[in-house]
């Protein structure tokens, strides 16, 4: 600091004429005094008139005093003001860096959006080409069918015309009636049923915008920009926060059925007594189902359906707990059930689960609204070496992409999770966290971001998987007093319900992490 002042003094040595100042009130007068009251330099006339009662000092004395205060002020600047200034400059530089990052993020968004648009356009052209090819093939089919039908009608008419003379010359009433009937059939002839169209049908999904945002892959978290996903599908973890811990009076919670009003139907294991509770554990209803249900689900029409494994049927559950059979599945025993968004039902079923049995059946059915079978997942895709792909399908669910997720028990102490696409093709198999020696899954559900949540009975954990079956993380339940988690489901507001041994129920909210 001293060096700075020395340099200033060397470069700025002012003479007396340069430092003389004129009074602001009397421009022709030179200032000779300093008014301490007004903090202003004044001339002789001002000191005698308007500043007469103020504290005035000779300007030379005030200059000396000010000069003596300069080291003190410099010390204050060096000790207090400079650190603050440095901090402020650091903040400015940080803001500049954030602005630069924002520009980079915007550039990434543009780049990723252009990549997606290119892919979308390519897929669009491919679909349009498929539709055109389908239309051309159908048009050819109809032309061939039309020509064949017309040829047969012409031959049929010619034969009738040639036989008309014979019919007219005979008195056989049966032949006359037969001729009249044939002519009537030709007049009333209708072409055969139209072949079903093979063109795709589209229906907008509920989470289209979220999926697109995730594909672009840029989110902000705590002020820092980072990639959330990429086109290849990076893994995104979650943070969980416990919002409620309750206990239901039953041996074990087998499954949940969660309604829009945040009420949960509790299906207890090895018992016919069920009930309805809220997120605080308050019981609103209790009743006897009259049968031990394996699983419950709720449709988009708020109809509650369950599987009665012992009696080989799917039942509708009334508000008072009374069961009404809607489908007899005999000889198959239904276990897991899930209501899809489009109104279909997924049901895991078995008949003689022993693999050694010749007529053993272990499968998953997709049922339409009229309970007719639309899809069966039972065997491997190999045509020459068909094998059962499932061992003991326990629970089943569907994600927002239409993938079918199945919990399949291999033995009484081990299992796996299998995922199939909407046409039944195997997408992935998950056999547990590689760090664990055992894995016994009991239930499965999916969130809106396609993550798969699996209850791991042995390890007291919830396994969280990516949409392609990659292990992401574990959520421990034993830390909150829940041992052996069994049932798991998301309610309509996105809260995760977990139930298990001793009727213990945990309710979490989940947050994305980067």
From TrEMBL:
<dbReference type="InterPro" id="IPR047153">
    <property type="entry name" value="TRIM45/56/19-like"/>
</dbReference>
<dbReference type="InterPro" id="IPR000315">
    <property type="entry name" value="Znf_B-box"/>
</dbReference>
<feature type="domain" description="B box-type">
    <location>
        <begin position="18"/>
        <end position="59"/>
    </location>
</feature>
<protein>
    <recommendedName>
        <fullName>B box-type domain-containing protein</fullName>
    </recommendedName>
</protein>
<dbReference type="Pfam" id="PF00643">
    <property type="entry name" value="zf-B_box"/>
</dbReference>
<keyword id="KW-0862">Zinc</keyword>
<dbReference type="GO" id="GO:0008270">
    <property type="term" value="F:zinc ion binding"/>
</dbReference>
<keyword id="KW-0863">Zinc-finger</keyword>
<dbReference type="InterPro" id="IPR011042">
    <property type="entry name" value="6-blade_b-propeller_TolB-like"/>
</dbReference>
<keyword id="KW-0479">Metal-binding</keyword>
């Amino acid at each position: 600091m001293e060096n700075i002042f020395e340099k200033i003094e060397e470069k700025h040595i002012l003479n007396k004429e340069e430092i003389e100042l004129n009074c602001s009130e009397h421009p022709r007068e030179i200032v000779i005094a300093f008014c301490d009251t007004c903090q202003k330099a004044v001339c002789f006339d001002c000191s005698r008139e308007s500043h007469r009662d103020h504290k005035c000092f000779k300007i030379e004395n005030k200059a000396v005093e000010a000069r003596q205060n300069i080291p003190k002020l410099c010390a204050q600047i060096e000790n207090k003001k400079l650190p603050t200034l440095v901090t402020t400059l650091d903040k400015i530089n940080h803001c500049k860096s954030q602005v630069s990052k924002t520009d980079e993020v915007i550039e990434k968004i543009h780049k990723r959006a252009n990549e997606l648009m290119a892919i979308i356009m390519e897929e669009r052209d491919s679909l349009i080409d498929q539709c055109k090819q389908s239309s051309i093939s159908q048009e050819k089919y109809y032309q061939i069918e039309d020509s064949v039908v017309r040829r047969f009608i012409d031959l049929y008419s010619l034969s009738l015309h040639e036989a008309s003379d014979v019919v007219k010359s005979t008195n056989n009433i049966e032949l006359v009636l037969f001729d009249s009937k044939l002519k009537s059939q030709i007049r009333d002839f209708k072409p055969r049923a139209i072949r079903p169209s093979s063109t795709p049908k589209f229906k907008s999904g509920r989470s289209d915008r979220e999926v697109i945002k995730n594909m672009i892959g840029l989110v902000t978290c705590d002020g820092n920009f980072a990639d959330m996903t990429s086109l290849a599908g990076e893994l995104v973890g979650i943070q969980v926060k416990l919002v409620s811990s309750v206990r239901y009076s039953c041996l074990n919670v087998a499954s949940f059925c969660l309604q829009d009003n945040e009420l949960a139907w509790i299906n207890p294991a090895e018992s016919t007594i069920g009930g309805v509770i809220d997120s605080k554990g308050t019981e609103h209803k209790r009743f006897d189902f009259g049968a031990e249900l394996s699983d419950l689900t709720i449709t988009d029409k708020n109809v509650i359906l369950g599987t009665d494994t012992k009696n080989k049927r799917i039942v509708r559950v009334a508000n008072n707990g009374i069961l009404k059979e809607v489908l007899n599945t005999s000889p198959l025993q239904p276990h897991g059930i899930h209501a899809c968004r489009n109104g279909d039902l997924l049901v895991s079923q078995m008949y003689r689960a022993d693999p050694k049995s010749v007529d053993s059946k272990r499968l998953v059915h997709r049922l339409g609204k009229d309970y007719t079978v639309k899809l069966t997942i039972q065997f491997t895709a190999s045509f020459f070496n068909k094998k059962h792909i499932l061992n003991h399908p326990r629970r089943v669910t569907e994600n927002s992409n239409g993938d079918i997720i199945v919990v399949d028990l291999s033995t009484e102490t081990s299992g796996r999770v299998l995922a199939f696409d909407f046409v039944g093709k195997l997408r992935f198999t998950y056999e547990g966290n590689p760090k664990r020696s055992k894995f016994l899954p009991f239930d499965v559900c999916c969130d809106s971001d396609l993550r798969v949540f699996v209850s791991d009975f042995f390890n007291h954990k919830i396994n969280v998987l990516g949409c392609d079956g990659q292990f992401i993380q574990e959520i421990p339940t034993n830390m909150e007093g829940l041992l052996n988690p069994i049932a798991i489901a998301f309610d309509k507001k996105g809260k995760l319900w977990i139930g298990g041994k001793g009727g213990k129920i945990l309710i979490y909210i989940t947050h994305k992490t980067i």
